[in-house]
Amino acid sequence: MPIALRPLTPADIPAWAALLAACERVDQTGENYDEDDLAEELADPTRDPARDFFGAWRGDDLVGYAAVRPRDQADGEHRIHLEGATHPDHRGTGVGTASLEWAVGRAGEAHAGMFPDVPAALVCDGLVANGAQTALLQAAGFTAQRWNFGMECRLDAEPPPADVPSGLAMLPYDAVSAEAARSAHNDAFLDHWGFAGWSPAMWQQWVTDTRAFRPGISRVLVADGASDVVVGYVISYEYEADAAATGIRTAYVGKVGVRRAWRRKGAASALLSDVLRACRAEGYGAASLDVDADNPTGALGVYRRMGFEVAHRWVTHGITIE
CATH 3.40.630.30 residue ranges in the chain? Predict the structure, then answer.
């Protein structure tokens, strides 16, 4: 039966969630999504729902999907994330090839309409062990560019203590403005590979307003007497679909950052220690995070000292188009 590609709509969300659940049972990425998560994806104001999400159908069955996430800021290059999945029963039948061709074409259209004066960097993440995905991307001209670790920490025991550096004060996330936190994030990651600044709209969608955000287990460090200047932060999430799939409440430490002037003074350790203790007190059984294997800040060592261990290895494949 031929493949039909058409935009995903809110009415397709149940089929989309079922597709992702079928993929996760085989792929074991550690990522789970429920229907509310996918509804948020379609509602992202920085994306065009009628053009940035496509489903691959065989008859009435959703057998694959692809999506693009063009960043709404560009500095030297326009970064566009590609994602997708094929139902395990339909792999090797052309679904992945058709979906990737669509995603690359749509990324080119989005780039031409948004930031045509700079090159576009198309990137797609996958597990290192997923040889079929790697072969598909390489056949399309993508190359492996960066490696990333997914790390996990059980909270059976009290996390290691860490003192707040002199001159700083630990505050709840809600004690500062969203703009102060966003500014700190954009400064902290300015020297990281492939980073594109977060716009106010993106911060509101994926921090302030997302249903997974947990301000109660998020923290900021501010300079004494200057609570409007965030020096470091941890922003945490809880994905209910993960708990439903694993039976364990896991706090996802989605963002950890320290402004460059305050690095290597113990700020990240203090933030993580406080957050992990709060997570344990609130009944979380584990915490997880992602880190660039070549992170320039020494973050990998900090995470290991806090009890995190590598659970998944990811690779970012990329290609540049004009």
Answer: 4-141, 151-313
SS3 97: helix
Q: Which residue has the tokens 């203090």?
A: 270
Task: Name the band, by pLDDT with cuts 50, 70 and 90, for residue 295.
Answer: confident
Q: Tell me: pLDDT of 127 over 80.
A: yes
The pLDDT tens digits for 182-202 are 999 999 998 888 888 999 999
Q: Does domain 151-313 have CATH number 3.30.70.980?
A: no
CA separation for the pair 188, 179 (Å, rounded)? 14
Which run of H or E residues covers position 17? Answer: helix 13-27
Average pLDDT over residues 244-248: 94
Q: Please, which residues bridge with residue 232 across strands?
A: 221, 258
Q: What is the pTM of this model?
A: 0.92
What are 314's two structure tokens?
């990811």
Edge-first strand order for the sheet with 168-172 is 4-7, 53-58, 61-70, 78-86, 120-127, 309-321, 143-154, 286-292, 250-258, 226-238, 219-223, 168-172
CB 122 within 8 Å of CB 320: yes
Which of 52-68 are b and which e, b meaning 16 or more Cβ less than 10 Å from the residue's Cβ?
bbbbbbbeeebbbbbbb
Mean pLDDT of 63-68: 97
> Which fold does the domain 4-141 belong to in CATH?
Aminopeptidase (3.40.630)
